[in-house]
Amino acid sequence: MYNNMCHMRTASIREVRHDFGRILEWVTNGEEVAITKRRETVARLLPARRRKTKRAKIPDVAARLHKVFGQKVITDEEMKRVLDDSRGSY
Fold it and tell me: Are 57 and 35 in contact (CB under 8 A)?
């Protein structure tokens, strides 16, 4: 029978206490670490699963403008008039 334990790194409780940084580096690199007490495995440290990040919904501005204004196109003259009328009111 195939045993996954043979490919797992091991560290004694003493090693975990005194050299946790090195063991944490193993786990950070994706390795599983068996923690042993008197050569008996008492725990396993596993790398955390990466959470899938949810993409923020980006509003569809073009669809919203089309819904509000339809196919209307504002000419340069109309835009200039609107800007001139509103100048200084803010």
Answer: no
